[in-house]
UniProtKB/TrEMBL annotation:
<dbReference type="GO" id="GO:0016607">
    <property type="term" value="C:nuclear speck"/>
</dbReference>
<dbReference type="GO" id="GO:0045722">
    <property type="term" value="P:positive regulation of gluconeogenesis"/>
</dbReference>
<dbReference type="InterPro" id="IPR011989">
    <property type="entry name" value="ARM-like"/>
</dbReference>
<feature type="compositionally biased region" description="Polar residues">
    <location>
        <begin position="733"/>
        <end position="786"/>
    </location>
</feature>
<dbReference type="InterPro" id="IPR016024">
    <property type="entry name" value="ARM-type_fold"/>
</dbReference>
<dbReference type="InterPro" id="IPR051137">
    <property type="entry name" value="PP4R3-like"/>
</dbReference>
<dbReference type="Pfam" id="PF22972">
    <property type="entry name" value="EVH1_PP4R3"/>
</dbReference>
<dbReference type="InterPro" id="IPR006887">
    <property type="entry name" value="P4R3-like_central_dom"/>
</dbReference>
<feature type="region of interest" description="Disordered">
    <location>
        <begin position="682"/>
        <end position="817"/>
    </location>
</feature>
<dbReference type="GO" id="GO:0005813">
    <property type="term" value="C:centrosome"/>
</dbReference>
<feature type="compositionally biased region" description="Acidic residues">
    <location>
        <begin position="682"/>
        <end position="692"/>
    </location>
</feature>
<dbReference type="InterPro" id="IPR055236">
    <property type="entry name" value="EVH1_PP4R3"/>
</dbReference>
<comment type="similarity">
    <text>Belongs to the SMEK family.</text>
</comment>
<dbReference type="GO" id="GO:0030289">
    <property type="term" value="C:protein phosphatase 4 complex"/>
</dbReference>
<feature type="compositionally biased region" description="Acidic residues">
    <location>
        <begin position="795"/>
        <end position="806"/>
    </location>
</feature>
<dbReference type="GO" id="GO:0005737">
    <property type="term" value="C:cytoplasm"/>
</dbReference>
<dbReference type="GO" id="GO:0072542">
    <property type="term" value="F:protein phosphatase activator activity"/>
</dbReference>
Length: 817
């Protein structure tokens, strides 16, 4: 509420006949249904809560004092007072009260007072004409003065009176002269009284008194008084610290004497608040609110004065980026900017905008780019803090700068790449700096804070830039640590694991966990950019290598990445997962975990439960057909049985559909659908396949499931039986724990796109009918049955397809045999 006329403080009289401040708010007079009459309402200015609700009783005696006070008694021992900020507001409410009671507003009291004792209650209220009488400022009166100062602190109104008296008589300067005399005479008792007096005056919370106490003339004596705390055996040496130890560093000489004085004053007052004064109790916490405001407004003034002096800031920037500047000087310059940005947080939003725009215009970002790449740890740390202020203020400003920079610079020296490299190269074992930088990167790549204007979309432009110029730098440690060479070197001697064991260095594992967290964020927010990247780099396969890490937190990060991908329920991702057989490392991790009931176990089970609940058909079929034998022994959850049930229900539905369609149409229709699907997949998966390492999966060998041709199913059953003896040899090996173990291989052929399978499909479950699809067997038997299929419907492309299959790379030998 902006109307200061109705701004009031509410007071109640306590048992000690002192007025207690109940809060500040805005008063109104309205009819209240519950009270059946006109009432006075006061709502708190802080949160709008009700401070006072009082019916204007026709018989209550209201008294108006000093033009800004209205006092009355609600019950025998409950006296209230409203102290108005402005006389006009007091007059308005007084008129309302008089109107209800039928009195002339010119009266001072609406009812006759009952007795004189009631009158005495109001003597405590502040009267500007009747101030507290201060004792004369002499050594022998110090105890009396100390008692007076401490006695008024509990009463807001007496505090006001004392503050006015101290201000009017120039009393503080006289007290400080006494302090010098006491110190010269080594009068310990007097010094202890002066500590109480000066501390009490600070708690009066009056800005006008602070102006006197914190002036250059007085502040050191005020600090001196506060050294002599009676509770301490020896006085503190605060003045010695402020004059000798604390050094004022001018990175560039400050010529403005007012600015220099303001900086000194702010430092010393902050020192008084933070170091000298004890932490205020709950009852005292509001006593120093004006002191906090005093420091706050000083900081605002310092920032504004420095900001207006463009010559000063230009000189700072010039020295910061000058190669000739020595390391110590540069460290001081960066620390100055860090403090400067910290001070700027005190500014109002519009002033803060102007402040950061000034810094941007002067070239803060190019300067940061230089200092963030320096060897000095302190400089890098301070530069990171400054960068965080800038990102927090305006991510768009930082994004715009790096995109413009990309047109003129190499990828290596781009600001975002410098930030990523700092994150990767953090020497702290706990990666404190890396965590901070990761948070800043997340803010920069978050589409939620990207702008979309009519002529351009920041989101598409910046994400294109990021994936083209920066993503390879971010994923480099991940790809390096999950390469076959690296993993082989890291293999633990004597390990009973067949699969590769990856980064076991704790710091590396933490870094990879951070990178995975960022990539998981990308999967959730970046849609097709990250999808292209994952497909082209076969990224999920590399990430799942980390399921073998001895650091469970890293294995969980890898699992969370896959879970986020599956959570999108995107069929492109699902086909990529099934073609690459990427459930294999997850199931191996589950089996390796054995009977332990831990977070890894729960997370893997939750992944499969999600697939079951959401009924993701392609993944359900892949899991049941390829892994059910290994998983059927897990009975403490119904997840895998549930997946099998879903799979069989879907098979039954498909069979019913097929049985209702004539044979020739069935083959025709399904054949065409499969072909359309194949072309679609080839377009997606083989895009840019000429580029090395980009093609993830080859043309789809498996795109003709048996469902497509039920009539010909029996024709290749013989071929299938011939394979069964081989299949039995290749079933998953039973481990010592009684479960099944799959082998996981990262061969070049898998990366280059051959649809190789290291896990053999088991023989059909007895309950499934003749149309159940067996992926692995089918992959080898399609060629054998092709002749009979072509006879049904002839397609011109079939010859090309045959050639493709004949020239496709040989399948990798099964590791289970």
């Amino acid at each position: 509420m902006s109307d200061t006329r109705r701004r009031v403080k509410v007071y109640t009289l306590n048992e000690d006949r002192q007025w207690d401040d109940r809060g500040t708010g805005h008063v109104s007079s309205t009819y209240v249904e519950e009270l059946k009459g006109m009432s006075l309402l006061v709502r708190a200015e802080s949160d709008g809560s009700l401070l006072l609700e009082s019916k204007i009783n026709p018989n209550t005696a209201y008294q108006k004092q000093q033009d800004t006070l209205i006092v009355w008694s609600e019950a025998e021992n409950y006296d209230l007072a409203l102290s108005f900020q402005e006389k006009a507001g007091c007059d308005e409410i007084w008129e309302k009260i008089c109107q209800v009671q039928g009195k002339d507003p010119s009266v001072e009291v609406t009812q006759d007072l009952i007795d004189e004792s009631e009158e005495e209650r109001f003597e405590e209220m502040p009267e500007t004409s009747h101030l507290i009488d201060l004792p004369t400022c002499e050594l022998n009166k110090l105890e009396e003065i100390a008692d007076l100062v401490t006695s008024v602190l509990s009463s807001p109104i007496r505090r006001e009176k004392l503050a006015l008296a101290l201000e009017n008589e120039g009393y503080i300067k006289k007290l400080l002269q006494l302090f010098q005399a006491c110190e010269n005479l080594e009068n310990t008792e007097g010094l202890h009284h002066l500590y109480e007096i000066i501390r009490g005056i600070l708690f009066l919370n009056k800005a006008t008194l602070f102006e006197v106490m914190f002036s250059d003339e007085c502040i050191m004596d005020v600090v001196g008084c506060l050294e002599y705390d009676p509770a301490l055996a020896q006085p503190k040496r605060h003045r010695e610290f402020l004059t000798k130890t604390a050094k004022f560093k001018e990175v560039i000489p400050i010529t403005d004497s007012e600015l220099r004085q303001k900086i000194h004053q702010t430092y010393r007052v902050q020192y008084i608040q933070d170091i000298i004064l004890p932490t205020p109790s709950v009852f005292e916490e509001n006593f120093l609110s004006t002191l906090t405001s005093f420091i706050f407004f000083n900081k605002v003034e310092i920032v504004s004065m420095l900001q207006e002096d463009e010559k000063f800031l230009s000189e700072v920037f010039a020295q910061l980026t000058d190669e000739a500047t020595d390391d110590d000087k540069r460290r001081e310059l960066v620390n100055f900017f860090k403090e400067f940005c910290a001070f700027s947080q005190t500014l109002q939003p519009q002033n803060r905008d102007a402040f950061f725009k000034t810094l941007a215009k002067l070239g803060i970002l190019p300067a940061l780019e230089i200092v963030m790449g320096m060897d000095d740890l302190q400089v890098r740390s301070a530069a990171t803090d400054i960068f965080s202020y800038l990102v927090e203020f305006s991510p768009s400003m930082v994004r715009e700068f790096v995109m413009q920079e990309a047109q003129q610079s190499d990828d290596d020296i781009l600001l975002i790449n410098v930030v990523i490299e700092q994150m990767i190269c953090d020497t702290d074992p706990e990666l404190g700096g890396a965590v901070q930088l990761m948070g800043l990167l997340r803010t920069l790549i978050d589409p939620e804070n990207m702008l979309a204007t009519t002529n351009k979309t920041e989101k598409s432009e910046f994400l294109n830039f990021f994936y083209n110029h920066c993503m390879h730098v971010l994923t480099a440690p991940l790809l390096t640590n999950t390469s076959e060479d690296k993993c082989e070197k890291d293999n633990i001697v004597g390990s009973n694991k067949n699969s590769t064991i990856c980064p076991d260095n704790y710091q590396t594992a933490q870094l990879l966990a951070l990178i995975l967290e960022l990539l998981t964020f990308c999967v959730e927010h970046h849609t097709y950019h990250i999808k292209n990247y994952i497909m082209n780099k076969d990224l999920l396969r590399r990430v799942l290598v980390l399921m073998n890490s001895k650091h469970t937190f890293l294995a969980l990060c890898a699992l969370r990445f896959m879970r986020r991908i599956i959570g999108l329920k995107d069929e492109f991702y699902n086909r990529y997962i099934t073609k690459g057989n990427l459930f294999e490392p997850v199931i191996n991790a589950l089996l390796d975990n054995g009977t332990r009931y831990n977070l890894l176990n729960s997370a893997v089970i939750e992944l499969f439960e999600f697939i079951r609940v959401e009924d993701i058909k392609s993944l359900t079929a892949h899991i049941v057909e390829n892994f059910y034998k290994a998983l059927e022994s897990i009975e403490y959850v119904q997840t895998f049985k549930g997946l099998k049930t879903k799979y069989e229900q879907e098979k039954d539905r498909q069979n019913q559909k097929l049985n209702s369609v004539p044979s020739i149409l069935r083959s025709n229709r399904f054949r065409r659908d499969a072909k359309a699907l194949e072309e679609d997949e080839e377009m997606w998966f083989n895009e840019d396949e000429e580029e090395e390492g980009k093609a993830v999966v080859a043309p789809v060998e498996k795109s003709k499931p048996e469902d497509d041709y039920p009539d010909t199913y029996e024709k290749f059953m013989e071929t299938k039986k011939a394979k069964e003896s081989e299949d039995k040899e290749n079933l998953p090996k039973r481990t010592s724990s009684g479960g099944f173990k799959f082998t996981f291989s990262h061969s070049a052929s898998a990366a280059n796109g051959t649809n190789s399978k290291s896990v053999v499909a088991q023989t059909p479950p007895a309950s499934s009918n003749g149309s159940s699809s067996k992926t692995t067997n089918l992959a080898t038997s399609v060629t054998a049955t092709k002749g009979s299929l072509v006879g049904l419907v002839d397609y011109p492309d079939d010859e090309e397809e045959d050639e493709e299959e004949e020239t496709s790379p040989r399948k990798r030998p099964r590791l289970g045999s």
